[in-house]
Design goal:
Elements (H helix, E strand, L loop, with lengths): L7 H4 L2 H9 L11 E5 L4 E8 L8 H20 L4 E9 L5 E6 L4 E6 L1 H8 L8
Parallel strand pairs: 2-3
Antiparallel strand pairs: 1-2, 3-4, 4-5
Length: 129
């Protein structure tokens, strides 16, 4: 099991470390792993990535992602130009298979195969949303 205690890589940035060490823990401050936007398809996706052997997501992080998902779900309903997704992806390099949880529609999918994963990441493969 990989040790994910607070080390240099844990925070992602000096600002995140500063916030954790100096600001109230009553609030949640997270480092998003990936934000994708494909202009030609009018799609925006936020991805929080976890390794398969990583501890479960912290409560505050999941709560914040679910709040963003509710906001994006509402935006998907009131406009039709830009489509939003908030996803938790669990997998390991070289990414031959991944689990995807779409927090907007609460659906979980497994994608098998390098090519399908690439297509999904490029917004060319849809998971029955």
């Amino acid at each position: 099991m990989v040790d994910y205690r607070k080390n240099d890589r844990y925070y992602g940035s000096d600002l995140n470390k500063f916030i954790d060490e100096n600001c109230t823990h009553e609030m949640t401050s997270i480092n998003i792993d990936c934000i994708q936007y494909r202009r030609s398809k009018n799609k925006l996706r936020i991805i929080e990535s976890k390794h398969t052997n990583e501890r479960p997501m912290k409560k505050g992080q999941k709560e914040l992602l679910q709040l963003l998902a509710r906001i994006f779900k509402y935006l998907n309903k009131i406009q039709n130009k830009l489509s939003f997704e908030i996803c938790i992806v669990r997998g390991n390099d070289p990414y031959q298979n991944i689990e995807v949880i779409n927090l907007i529609n609460n659906k979980k999918f497994n994608i098998y195969g390098y090519e399908k994963i690439i297509k999904w990441l490029q917004f060319d493969y849809y998971l029955g949303e």
